[in-house]
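Tokenise the fold.
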Amino acid sequence: MWLPERAGRWSCSCAAPGSWGGYSGAFRATARVAPTIFRLLSYIRFMELQEKITILSGAARYDASCASSGCSNDTPYRGTGNTSQGGICHSWADDGRCISLLKILLSNDCRYDCAYCVNRSSNPVPRASFTAREVVDLTMEFYRRNYIEGLFLSSAVWDSPDRTMEEMVRVAEILRNEERFGGYIHLKVIPGSSADLIRRAGLAADRISVNIELPSNESLKRLAPQKSKESILTPMKLIGAEAGFSLVERTKSRKAPRFAPAGQSTQMIIGASPETDLQILQLSQSLYRKMNLKRVYYSAFVPVNDDNRLPVLAAPPLLREHRLYQADWLLRFYGFSAEEILSDDAPNLDESFDPKTAWALRHPEFFPVEINRADYATLLRVPGIGITSAKRIIAARRFAPVTHEGMKKIGVVMKRAKYFITCSGRPFEKIDQQPARLRQRLLLGDGSEQKQPQQLVLPGLFA
């Protein structure tokens, strides 16, 4: 009986070591062929793995929730990887660095039949699944070659939520405990997973997230009837509570384990259902306040299926997605509420202006703002003044009044701000308080042709 020992060497169980057992010609021929067979099998396995990568990385491209936080974690001594180091490629950290992630699905063989999803069970698409070990090996090999700095792992639900989540958690735990990997890991939590699996995921990964999918329960029932609001919100609440508890324990002991140190995020599909921008922002505002959420990602609906429950769109609503991100920034960092940005009378964002400029045009009574006397919160309401420039204004006027020339040096976008400010009582130019005329001047800008804002997308994303 022939038994493979390792590449290029074979042994016979019925002959003594070093003996050919009386069949020297046949054995020698087999020994010469064995390395060729091994190489052929290795090539076949490589091609199968490459096909899996092609299928499962392509299936993961519609998930927008993949930005790395660039958080700092406890890299094991002599371990591999460091999530705080910057690199080249595909997603952006909160501090502006570009982070490369291996972004794949564990499987696209889904039991659910969501109307908007390319991996729905009724779609005739190629199916593939990784083993946990394959994902671990890919991550480590790609990291050692400096292709990536972390892993973004999601999956279709192929058996049950717990079975799927168990395999994803195994990937993260093997990376951390066996491979000593200290790079960034983002795991998607499968709605309906047990609390124990979610806790294990939070202890192994830097960030975990649950996709809320659609802005209302009614739309979820219509387009994804196998999912429920409770199965999505329950793990989000648990993650938020565990993260808060972890922070408290870390104040008592620095040796206490970290739970998802980069926080949790979620993703919402925009344009597949009839909700207004006001409803979407109110939901995001509620999630930020109640779920200890780090970020909401908005994903423009890409029509990939023919389904009469879905709207017919000429193109994905990318400009609407862009405006929602801008409004979301106002919610998180500028002190605005959803009800200030929009109202029942105007429930959708203006596509011609960013949300802060649109708000300023609707509230002429708030302006002009005197730059040398306004507080920080008031400065943030001025179009063209951001967080950094507002802090610089506060710091600069401690030594001398800020002038129009100084505003430009500070970094204020004067082509917008000049209509809403004064410096020591003097306007930058004559201010017209009639919103219609001011709107027209803002649209014309400096007289050059007005360009429509566009969002950059990965090539082939909507092919």
